[in-house]
Amino acid sequence: MTGWEPDVLPGYWQRSLPLGADPDGEGTLVATVVARGEPAAHPARAVLLVHGYTDYFFHTDLADHFAGRGFAVYALDLPKCGRSRRDGQTPHFTSNLAHYDSALAAALDAIGAADVLVYGHSAGGLIVTLWLDRLRRRRATGPISGLVLNSPFFDLHGPAILRTPPTSAALIALARLRKMQVVRKPTPGGYGTTLHRDYAGEFEYNLEWKPVGGFPVTFGWINAIRRGQKRLHRGLDVGVPSLILRSDRSVAEAGDPDLIQRGDAVLDVAQIARWSGCVGHRLTVVPIIDAKHDVFLSVAEPRSAAYRELDSWLDWYLRTGTSSTTPHSG
After folding, report:
1. Rounded CA separation 74/47 (Å)
2. How far apart are CA 249 and CA 288, in angstroms?
3. Which positions fall inside the Serine aminopeptidase S33 domain (predicted)?
């Protein structure tokens, strides 16, 4: 139990992971690994949950579900996010997604499991996918044996001009000159209002760590995301079997409030579908009818469907591990 202390969530424990100086010049970085229940010294099988932008770990229902399937459950609040952000640090800012590799490696060491399933949502899905490809190329995947992605951030949402070479070149230049300049301010919170109990949602979480309108997006961060996406589009190989869950539709965040409850108001699901094959290895892709951006924070029916699809894949994963037989694909 050395280094572990009670977490803000009842029944959970946390451990701060010092990472040294921030490459982006915002002081000293830490990450925080969170454990469901008292951490075991060397669990046989664990899952590591990694959040997206304007997010942190709070989803105890998802943790309970994985625990019910026999996993020791751990989550990581990345540097400058949630539990890990320190005074003077820009929320969620990084200029390079590879800067997260040290936090992810430290989390694996802290967990100490013989077998690890990695889970990533939205930007976290892009981050862990790139990380696993780098590990595979170094032949250093270690205990990681599977990957689950929940609406991964595989391309920029919006007009096609945002994804053209001239726009990319301009973004690189702006990121070099004005990396901390805000390119998108927080919104009134269309998607966020469908989640939190104080608005139209079902879930309770810290609104300072996950504001309903999101954190500001900077040129430096969006350039880091775009570089990671372009690397993905050239094709990766994560080296382990993967499951990708997403909604079956995208909806306008500023549209009908009822529609926002039954679609992805953050990303273009057609882009997720287009680029999913670039993850490599054995892949299962499942669209969930009426799911939100976080499929496990959807309203009851699609949320249940998402858990059923997760269980179907886990049945195969736990039975066959890394065998060459693939389950269904979509």
Report:
1. 6
2. 9
3. 42-247
Closest CA to 4 of 28, 30, 40, 29: 40
The DSSP 8-state label assigned to residue 286 in this structure reads E
Q: Sign of the C-alpha dihedral, residues 117, 203, 293, 305?
A: positive
| Three-state SS at 111 | helix
What's the rounded Cα separation, in Å, for the pair 272 and 151?
7
Residues facing residue 17 across a β-bridge = 31
CATH number of 5-158+235-320: 3.40.50.1820
**Is the four-CA dihedral 238, 43, 58, 223 of positive or negative sign?**
negative
Backbone angles phi, psi at 82, to 5 degrees: 50, -125
Matching residue, tokens 């350039």: 223
Two tokens, residue 324: 């060459």
3-state secondary structure of 217: strand
* Eight-state DSSP code of residue 215: P
* Rounded mean pLDDT for each run of 10 residues along the chain, 330 residues in total: 90 98 97 96 96 98 98 98 98 98 98 97 98 96 96 82 62 75 88 94 97 94 94 97 98 84 96 97 97 98 98 96 46
* Residue 261 · residue 292 · CB < 8 Å: yes
Closest CA to 261 of 187, 201, 180: 201
Distance (Å, whole) CA 122 – CA 293: 8
154 and 271 Cβ atoms separated by less than 8 Å: yes
Apex 227 CA angle, 105 and 74, nearest 5? 25
- In angstroms, rounded to a whole number, what is the distance separating the alpha carbons of residues 155 and 176? 21
Q: Are 287 and 330 in contact (CB under 8 A)?
A: yes
